[in-house]
Each structure stands twice: as C-alpha cells, then as structure tokens.
Amino acid sequence: MADNGLGRVEPKTWLHVEKYGVSPPTVATVESALVVPKEVRGAAYWQGSTSQCVGASGGQHKTFWEAKNGGPQVLFDFDWLWCQACQIDSWGDNNDCADKSHGTAVRSAFDIMRTKGLLRAGGARPSKRWSIGRNEWVTSVDAMRALLAQGTPVNLGTTWYSQMFRPEHRPNGEWVMSVTTGNVVGGHSYIAWQASDQRQAFLIYNTWENWPAAGNPGCWIPYELVSRLLRENGEAGYIVADEPGKLGISSDVL
Q: For 114-129, what is the mean pLDDT?
C-alpha cells in the first residue's frame, strides 16, 4: 500500500467535541445520494504516499460546498492546508512542511479553514473568500445518517486497520469493507458522502489514486464499523455554514 498514505493523528484534547458536539434529530430511513463533483475524486486530492490526508479531505470538503452553493468549480491546495494545520496542532515535532511523513488532526484543518480560509490551487496567497463560517461535530452513526439525509457530508478522522485497505468487490460491482479489521496501521481522514440504510453503510471516496479500483469508484464502509471507529477516539466533523461569518465561529483554536 505504498501509494495509500494515511496521516490523521488523534487530538490531544476533545474540548472541540465537548463544546461543539451536536445531536441532529434522528431520521427513520436514509438513502442519500449527494452529487459529488468528479473533481473531488480526481488527482487534485490524491495524497500519494504522504501523510497529508487531513489536508486532502479538507480540500475535498470545501470543493463540494462551493459547487453545492452554486459557486465556481474550485480546487484547493491541500499541501498548504495540511501544513497550516500542522502549525497549530498540539505537537511540536511536525512543523517542517518539507517533511510530508507526519500527520495532523482533523480539528486543526477545520480551525484553519475558519480562521485563515484556504489557498486556491495555483494561487499566490490564501483568502478568507474561501473560508468556512462554522463547523460542528457528531459522535454517532445515527447523527451522521441524519446529516447525510439533509445533504451534508461528514469528515471522519479515525483509526485505519489493515483490512480496510482491501474491500470486497461484490457481484453488483460495488466495493464494500468488511467489519473484520485486522491490525492497526495508522489513522486516516476521509469523507462520508452518502448513507444507505439498505446497505447499512456509508459511501466514501478516498484520497488515493485508483482505490479501490481504477477510476476511484468509491467504497461502502459498514455502519457497524464506523460506530466502532467513532468509539475508538474517532472524529466526525462537518461544515454548518459555508458563508464566512454567517453563523459565527464554532470553536476556538484549542
């Protein structure tokens, strides 16, 4: 899995979840189908063997919201977002942006997107034009289902197990992870784009080239597995307001 880098690190504190965690109203049945721009799955957000998944998934998240709000099809520099997140996280040994082998926390990327904005791919400087107004956190599969039912993707930061690299290719053409996980190999940041009660799973598009197969077709991760990952110090964050300042700032840089 040399080209399938990881890089999410657990935050040292959970004040962001304690202060800004929410519980959306439950929904009976969910079969969501977000329109995910092809650019989100494309090479602009492939991290390769680096540990920049937090920056790559953050860029995917913002690109989606720009398209959803009727804005331009904008791509962002995930290397910049990852580097900035490293500067404000709780570790002092990962500030060298030339060393792409160290990770950071999902919370830190959200903090940068709120306070500094993002750097457009090919741009000279970051802009608050590309910032987000508010983000919050959920801690359960039911809460994620409710968000996806209303068209809101969820950025996960979880432990990643060896067997998660190897989903099963079903006869119907879909790729599905097993609830059997194997050994811990690191931490990863990725986005749940759809929820399907029929499948009992969320759909993810990873930040790796041609995973789980050519064309990056997406993979279903079972609710049961996600529930376990959230219990194992997983994070699940989402953008509430994409217009800077519309609903205020949701969390301090803790």
A: 94
- Sequence letter at residue 208: W
Helices (H), the chain: 15-20, 38-41, 53-68, 78-88, 106-115, 141-149, 223-231
Tokens of 126: 């970051």
Q: Is the peptide bond before 212 cis (omega within 30 degrees of 0)?
A: yes
Structure tokens at 22: 């929410």
SS3 84: helix
Backbone angles phi, psi at 187, to 5 degrees: -125, 150
Is residue 90's pLDDT more than 80?
A: no
pTM of the model: 0.92
Instruction: Report, at the CATH architecture level, how domain 15-241 is classified.
Output: Alpha-Beta Complex (3.90)
Could you say which DSSP state residue 121 is in? T
Domain positions in the chain are 15-241
